[in-house]
């Protein structure tokens, strides 16, 4: 049985390393390996897609821009605020004029005579 030469072993290691690296690059969807149409469809569909759990709860991601308003993120609704009721101030109390007090007339003077 013939043993492998040192050159053959190093060549085999290099081929295995390159094969593993190319598989990892293709699994990531490296921009050079996939068609632009498929990438654009994925990004556009992910913006409008609603992710739900088995119980119907919405899932949100902490990455990327916040989701737009939709089924799981309803738009805020302004609350109705009634205008304040303006109450007229009570009329000022009417104060009766103070009575005019006049001194009593002096009794007639008696003359002597």
Task: State the gist of this model.
The protein is mainly alpha-helical. Helix content is 32%, strand content 0%.
Termini Cα gap: 183 Å
Question: What can be said about the biggest beta sheet?
Answer: none
> Average pLDDT value?
76
- The succession of helices and strands, N to C, reads HH
Oligomer kind: single chain
Please state the CA-atom Rg, rounded to the nearest Å: 49 Å
Model description:
The structure is a single chain. The chain is mostly helical and 113 residues long. It contains two helices and no strands. It has helices at 6-28, 36-48. The model has no long low-confidence stretch (mean pLDDT 76).
List the helices and strands and how they pair.
Elements: H1 6-28, H2 36-48
Descriptive labels:
113 residues, mainly alpha
């Amino acid at each position: 049985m013939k043993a492998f030469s040192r050159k053959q072993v190093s060549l085999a290691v290099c081929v295995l390393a390159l094969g593993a690296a190319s598989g990892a690059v293709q699994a990531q969807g490296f921009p050079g390996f996939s068609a632009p149409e498929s990438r654009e469809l994925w990004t556009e569909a992910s913006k409008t897609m609603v992710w739900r759990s088995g119980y119907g709860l919405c899932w949100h991601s902490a990455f990327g821009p916040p989701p737009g308003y939709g089924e799981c993120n309803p738009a805020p609704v302004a609350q109705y605020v009634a205008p304040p009721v303006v109450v007229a101030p009570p009329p000022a109390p009417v104060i009766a004029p103070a009575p005019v007090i006049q001194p009593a007339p002096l009794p007639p003077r008696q003359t002597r005579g």
